[in-house]
Amino acid sequence: MTLPDIFTEWFAQQGWSPHPHQLALLTATGPSTLLIAPTGGGKTLAGFLPSLVDLYDGNRTPGSVHTIYVSPLKALAADIRRNLDRPVREMGLDLRIEDRTGDTKQSTRQRQRVDPPDMLLTTPESLALMLSYPEAPKIFGGVRRIVLDEIHALAESKRGDQLSLCVERVAAFSTDLRRTGLSATVEDPSALARFLGEGTHVVEADPGPPADIAMLKAELPAPWFGQGGRHAARDVMDQVRRHKTTIIFINTRAQSELFFQALWAENEENLPIGLHHGSLSREARQKVEGAMAAGHLRAVVATGSLDLGIDWGDVDLVIQVGAPKNVKRLVQRIGRANHRYNAPSKALLVPANQFEIIECQVALDAVVEADLDGDPRPDGPLDVLCQHILLTACAAPFDADALYHEVKRAQPYARLSRAGFERCLDYCATGGYALRAYDRYQRLVERDGLWHLRDPRAARDLRMNVGTILDYNNLKVAYRRGKMLGEIEEGFASTLVPGDTFLIGGQVVKYEGLREMTVQVSATSGKEPRIATFGGTKLAMTTKLAHRVLDFLNNREEWTKLPTHTAEWLDLQTRISRMPVAERLLVETFPRGPQNYAVFYAFAGRNAHQTLGIILTRRMEEAGYGPLGFVANDYALMIWSLDPLDTPEKLIDGQDLRAALDTWFAENMVMKRTFRIPARVAGLISQNQPGQRKSGKQATFSTDILYDTLRRYDPDHLMLEITRDEAMRGLVDFDRIEEFLGRVRGRVDHVEAPHVTPLSAPLILEVGRVPVKGEAERRLLDEDIAAVLTEAGIGTNG
Amino acid sequence: MAPFRFHTADLDALESGALYWAAERLLCVSDLHLGKSERIARRGGALLPPYDTRETLDRLSAEIARHDPATVICLGDSFDDLDALDRLAEAARRHLLTLMAGRRWIWIEGNHDPGPTDLGGEHLFEASINSLTFRHVAEPGTPPGEVSGHYHPKASLTLRGRRVSSACFLSDATRLILPAFGAYTGGLKVSDPAVSNLMMPEACVRLTRAPQHAIPLRLVA
């Protein structure tokens, strides 16, 4: 394919010439091409150019879409439609480009089903939905190209698994489908190429000049603990003053709220600075996005919600507050500065505590060496497949054999066994043994060799629950006069009593009461607000980064890169205790107040440490140490108990640990929480029902009960198996525990320290403590109530 | 655990939420709500697996095995509605009949189950045993010695910075209100005027998680 004159002329009029990778995509002949280009490299235009040329050449099938463009964000789809509008109009191309997302009007959706556009810009969920309509074979029968944007972000999640299934569905309808993947810089392009399909050709664009990245020199030293980075607010504000537009990335929503507040305290000139995170109301976010794109903001404090490629205009500095936890994401974030090709990105890292200074230094070294990390993606989860089977039946009756082979062509499901497929099919048809009594779960029936929806009316309910992203159990927060501020987790809301103050959207508000599903608040000027908790898991440090940190700690020459106070902090650690090493487990024990602490430096990431915490406290309970609770961060686990842990080496035994895993698995909250995901994805629980929306609390209530009863009466139920798999690699992260056990092999260094050690200090104030419910808890409950009663001047057995 | 004195009786508040009166060999449980999940499903609500009935009966069996009471009083709302009783699975029905065999069994009428059942036992609006009166809903102005259920009381208490919350027994010199014994039953905070207005200021609660302690109502929320 060559560029027709009308295109070359248009490029010339803009004063542009196509980048080499844009032309490479045009001349690619294979069934599938993956373009890897840094942010700002003109990826999207590259992806669309072949389609525009093909349509200009008149290749189209009437009544069918020609090109499907899939983006992870609704906003991105709309953004791209606007960006394409101009070249199409100016070149006078005769084609229709429309977006189709959750925000599209009902009437437009209806029309698109009978009269689809040439180019359909959509999201994985909306594509899945369109594929569930009886018209799907016609709408997608003539599709020539499918463009998957930001595929590096999609491929890491269930949305990507669902998308891969949908792409195969489209491929089954269309005879001549070409795939194009667009990705930011990643560590393993070949893995992404496999995701896109067999025979994918990889085009790597010039990565551009190396980033200008450094650690921010803060006036005040970072504290020993804490994650907020607020000590550096003044220095960050200085940087904002000196640059045109700054994006400040922070890892969690709660921290972004706090930092935003701290920044405003230093903002003497009242420079326009905005806040953007996923829990703010859509209006609040759109306002910030609009102001940002128009160049009205000098800075925006943001979380991952701003990670994907919407064009934010002229950003000249990116600041990352807190350790990035993942070098690849850091590189992608840095790419947001100078969103123009061939200009170096400028970025600053702001470590939030002493340990993060080390993490940031190590991450910096990794960026310079282009040593990207990433944990491999496991096989596609079965809950997504269950949803896919049900949606397939919504479009038309299907042949199990044909569907099985189609599903296997999707790379995440390439290794799916026939037996695995049949179990999913059986679940879709009957609900599984424990639920067989309910009509609602008997959704499919086989007639004449084809699987039909048993009740066609079920299609509506299934379509309303398309997708793999779950709404957390959030409640809206609004002023009494109605202005929406954002959302908080229901669990947090339930701890509020009228008069409590908390932070949301950068404002301190006072809780007034709960009305229907809305938390009503009023403005207040309280000084010590509580921090609202928001949905979203914490990021765990990748294995690769953890290993680099361990190497760094044990190489004193490297310490010269650190600020003096940090090097001294490490030196103090070697004198009071010792430095953790990769192939042994350091355990420190020390008393503090009335309790005894034990710290395990496993360097396996936060999630794995949480799991280890559950297993180890359970074993301590059995051994009579009276464990009270634990807390984990990325490099260590800390447990506190009534009695001191004298022989930690006995607790760490690989065999026993694996055996212990099974027993605790069942009853812990992590599993219950994980269960909600497959239960919703696979349609066990409806998040949305026609005519009503289930409140978060109701949904939680019934998923918890479903979990308990399935576990007791049908422990082999498919949903429980999916939950175990998911928890194993998600919140439980057992792979990382295995990696740690293999590395340490039972070699334990036990240090009995006189008091808190430098490395353990950050854990003392770490948030997210998990209490242990056991004999110690009963003992303490008894003592605590007795103490409260005595204090109130009452005998204890009244 | 030492019994507590209520009116003229020495009673045990059990962690399960049941009440035991050793002198009378009497076990009292309130608000079993058998068949609740089935009723919710029947009304088009959430589909909860129908195992709550079994769970509640298992817990009741455990208390009966432990104390071998001569008399059992179910203090009303034993069935989530009268239809739920009809639809009670055969296994659950047999289970109940086994528990009932060989002892006096009194079904007090509740707002959910206001009518006689075909399960046998006595069916009463209220029952007087020795000095105590058992009825489903507390009556204002009643003479001392009333034992009732209905409200599913729960309370939370702040202890050294943490908050402990649990179903509870609620009592003063006149009346004693039992927590719900059934599975999947929610609760009403004791600070809710619907409950607190019934009680005298010196009332106290016993959390089912630590029933050995009588905690003044003013200390809990």
Cα(first) to Cα(last) distance of chain B is: 25 Å
Question: What is the string of helix and strand elements of chain B?
Answer: EEEEHHEHHEEEEEEEEEHEE
SS-based structural class of chain B?
A: alpha/beta
CATH topology of chain B: Purple Acid Phosphatase, chain A, domain 2
CATH third-level topology of the domain at 5-204 in chain A: Rossmann fold
CATH top level assignment of the domain at 5-204 in chain A: Alpha Beta
> How many β-strands of chain B, per DSSP?
16
Helix/sheet category of chain A: alpha/beta
Let me know the average pLDDT of chain A.
82
DSSP helical segment count of chain B: 5
Q: Work out the count of structural domains of chain B.
A: 1
Major sheet details of chain B: 9 strands, mixed
Family (chain A): Belongs to the Lhr helicase family. Lhr-Core subfamily.
Enzyme class (chain A): hydrolase
Pfam family, one (chain A): DEAD
EC number (chain A): 3.6.4.12
